[in-house]
Amino acid sequence: MPPVRYPERPLVGVGALVLRGDRILLIRRAAPPSRGLWSIPGGHVELGESVLETAVRELKEEAGLDGQALGVVNVDEVIKRDDSGRVVYHYVLVTVLVDAPHGEPKPGGDALDASFFELREALHMADIAPSAAGLIRKILEGRIPLANPIPVRKYSPSD
User: Fold this and answer.
1) Is there a domain that residue 136 lies in?
2) How far apart are CA 31 and CA 136, in angstroms?
3) Is 52 within 8 Å of 26 (Cβ atoms)?
4) Is 152 part of a structural domain of the chain?
5) Considering only Cβ atoms within 10 Å of each terminal Cβ, which end of the chain, N or C, has fewer?
6) Residue 94 lies in a domain
């Protein structure tokens, strides 16, 4: 899905962080944003869908893997303004740790390729998306709560 330019409100994107030992799952994006760059699988939350459900769906669509969402491990924001100061785009990016211990990734959806990479190798790839590089840097620096992801409670308030 191409980036939404000049939105009325921030958009929520969810990434599926899949680790196998010291390797991270990355997909090569076929569409903007980050077309042609390696990133974690992810996309927009659909209406009525939880962030955990989004992570599992995007993992299946873009890498062909089934997984179980364990919880949120990171939140970043991307805000770009034009020369007049107007917001061109604003994304809240939620990273969900997903356990997907079986299977080999197969690209699908808007992914051109999907593969596991050693974390330090991935960080230095010339064609890695800045958001993915930042996430990997946080993982290597121990700033991501991999051992204790934040659970997300899904509920519908009573009227």
Assistant:
1) yes
2) 22
3) no
4) no
5) C
6) yes
pLDDT of residue 94: 98
Q: How many domains does the chain have?
A: 1
| Ranges of the chain whose pLDDT falls below 70 | 1-2, 158-159
Amino acid at 19: L
Report how far Cα 108 is from the mean position of its chain's Cα atoms.
15
Identify whether 2 is part of a domain: no
Helix (H) or strand (E) holding 83: none
125, burial (CB in 10 Å: exposed 0-12, middle 13-18, buried 19+): middle
- Which pair of tokens denotes residue 82? 């034009």
The CATH number linked to 77 is: 3.90.79.10
In eight-state DSSP terms, residue 130 is H
pLDDT of 4 reads: 80
| Helix, strand, coil % in the chain, rounded to nearest 5 | 20, 35, 45
Structural domain range at position 110: 11-140
Beta-carbon-side half-sphere exposure of residue 110 (alpha carbons within 13 Å): 20
Look at residues 68, 72, 84 and name the one whose alpha carbon lies nearest to residue 12. 72
- For residues 36, 40, 41, 42, the Cα torsion angle rounded to the nearest 10 degrees is -100
Amino acid at 129: A
Q: What integer pLDDT is reported at residue 1 of this predicted model? A: 59
